[in-house]
Amino acid sequence: MILQTLEALPSWLASETGEAAWFFAYWGILALLAGLEFFIPAFQQPARRERRWPTNLGMGVLSMLLAPLAPVSFVWGAQWAQTHEQGLLNQLGGPWWIAVTATFVIRSFVGYVTHFLTHKVPLLWRLHRVHHSDTHVDVTTTLRTHPLELALAFLILLPLTIAIGFTPWVLVVYEILHGVADFLAHANLRLPEGLDRSLRWIFVTPNMHCLHHSSYQPETDSNYGQVFSVWDRLFGTYSSAPRGGYDALEMGLKEVRQRVGAGGTCGRGGIRVMVHLCGVSVTPLENGMRIEFCRWSFGG
User: Fold this and answer.
1) What is the pairing mode between strands 296-299 and 279-284?
2) Which of 14, 155, 183, 191 is least buried, going by the fewest C-beta atoms within 10 A?
3) pLDDT exceeds 50 at position 6
């Protein structure tokens, strides 16, 4: 019964009811975590929501407008491959647990490698540094992604989905898990130390991922995992704690922090973050913070 329900999940999500449910769940989880951040924040530094949130939320809406079907397309690709018996897993067959294991292992590994490359390949870093330009990390930082980085993920994951032959319902479950984990990892919340130590043996936690947004370069170049922490442990990119402790952790790229002033706030003048098709540049701004993408602009 449970397996039959899961197998019907892709078709239900493609319906009007499913699309509406996913939309409200997505923004509902974001709103819930934002509320928790307001009352029990992990970091007490000024969040400057009035300046940061219009930028982050604006980029989130822009990304949804430019690439609204990307996650759905992965599932469509999986359904097409299953119908036409294309892809490795569809050719081999096997029980459901093999499909679950293979999908979770391969999909999470590719996510880890892709994230690693966006830090190491200069052209890709020009796109990904938009995400790291936020000088205070909270749940809205999840939305702060260059649209071309989303396009890159699409170009990698769609062919991979067809070539491997991911089972559609398993892929849906993973993408939902990935979305929730992404929100939680960026949330300005801190789990109890004992619980965090236990969870991070398998999963990426907020305590673990906040190091990845550190202004200290060795910490920025660590903890690339998106759902599972195992890949960082296997490939030596795992960091357990910031060098100066969590209370002294500074967020955002060092060059951005130097422009906005000490403490990671926007100071008197703030900054302007120019997001181009080829990357991002930072220049002083008299009032507030502003992100511009081509002719689109979001002020905060």
Assistant:
1) unpaired
2) 155
3) yes
